[in-house]
Amino acid sequence: SNDDSVVTLLDYGAGNVRSVRNAIRHLGFQIKDVQTPKDILNARRLIFPGVGAFAPAMDVLNNTGMGEALCTYIQDDRPFLGICLGLQLLFESSEENGPVGGLGLIPGVVGRFDSSKGFRVPHIGWNALQITKDSEILDDIGNRHVYFVHSYRAMPSKENKDWISSTCNYGDEFIASVRKGKVHAVQFHPEKSGGKQFITHAFLYLQHVDCEHDYISAPLYVGLSVLRRFLLPKSSLTEVIACLDVRTNDEGDLVVTKGDQYDVREHAEKNEVRNLGKPVELAGQYYKDGADEVSFLNITGFRDFPLGDLPMLQVLRSASENVFVPLTVGGGIRDFTDSNDRYYSSLEVASEYFRSGADKISIGSDAVHAAEEYLKTKVKTGKSSIEQISRVYGNQAVVVSIDPRRIYLNDPSDVPFKSIRLTKQGKENLLVRPFTNLKSVIEYIFTGCSWFSQLCQVQMEKNMPGINARADGGLLVINGGREGRPIGAYELAKAVEELGAGEILLNCIDCDGQGKGFDVDLIKMICDAVSIPVIASSGAGAVEHFTDVFSKTNASAALAAGIFHRKEVPIRSVKEHLLKEGIEVRI
Ligand code: 1PR
Asked: ipTM exceeding 0.85?
């Protein structure tokens, strides 16, 4: 096409390209989708937002002839913008499920971040760039931060130096963007970095077909990189996440609700589902207020099949039109057979979420089943939802939501799980609950465990007259707290990491909705157990609670719901407070 308002998009259907599409349309451009290799060769401007894992993407490119067309297009120095995997595929090969050969246009191997250096992998979050070469698309970035989500990265070397336009630091210095002539690619997500201006710049550039190449000379490059290593922060920013628990109320409308220890019904006359607003509106509001990420949890997804739950998919589609930070969606991701005997794999369910605008999906109940199976057999079958989805979409796209409920013990050896002693603060956290006999709380574990609860019921009744009043129905983790399973939070976290989860969303049923602070003891235990990022959740009630969790644990993000829904504290105040306390956040 000769029309300057048309952009060609290479979307091979493996993931969420919706936000890129939305960003492009937002800017008044039309999209032409690549159907055949010829569409690539005929493109005037081509955007390749690679999604998913390296090997399946290369398979598609090789099997369709698109890989060859891409190589020709890029070698001809025609306007190109690759995003994320769209950068990695340009390299010679990747270690992701590999080695797997890439397009081989840029020298170097895409390798995994080294988690032994104490950095959590995947690298998920906002980080600063060190710009090393003039590149119009980076013009507006300056000291601003951009959003990354990846486990693999390419590293600068002598051989690829002439390609690099910026690097970033996360344990190692890695390549954040490349540019040569009219060919650009970025490891970060411009469409998720809080604004459409990066994409605008990409287009502005792509319209100036005669731009000159302006490389920074080699000595200056080296000098800058030395300084950069010295001066710039080495890890990514801490994040504040707004969470929307979504379900249908008794009138059949999809509403944002909020539980009190997972109980979402008003205990007034009508016993209604608490209604705190409309999902799309609130998500848009939180994005404007500075949320670094927005999570939707379809909290009845365990019983209603999510693909039958079209309003939820619609919520995602609409939200992704106005929210330009990452969206995570959870609820009901599992294998499912519908009433017509049609079978859907968890991968299909997740794919539908990704297609509708999710950047990450979050698995709750099904992750517990998978972990139990894995701990029992010690065999990775490759069939669990975690394994299947992470293989196709990458680990960074798979979050596991852990919903532990406390059990109080007199003796840690009473249980086959790891337990930890409550600190003073942990106990303070408890005081909101109707306990009468705190003296006997010496240890606790996190689990949900039906057989265990029966076993301990008698003992608990004896020792803890208070707790049974609240622990009605057992000690629970799955199906929104309706069923307990015999596995501890620690064991669960380690197992799902081994199965391929890229991030943990750590709730705490006891603290949920209480506004008394995060469960720092629990969060610390899980952060120390795994090397993937941990999102601390449940209990935020004041700005100090955020500083507390970030200063006492290695959580990479803190998630809150009620405090924002009830408009008690705006996201901005949380971030200003964190900054004042010396904790780096994106403002
Ligand atoms: O099991 O894969 O279908 O996923 C279901 C998902 O829904 C899980 O992630 C589970 O955590 C969530 N969920 C299920 N039931 C409830 C409920 O509230 N009845 N909500 C529920 C979980 C908890 C938090 C909450 C924080 C912060 N929401 O995410 O947002 O506790 O709240 P606060 O700041 O107000 O304290 P599956």
From this structure: yes
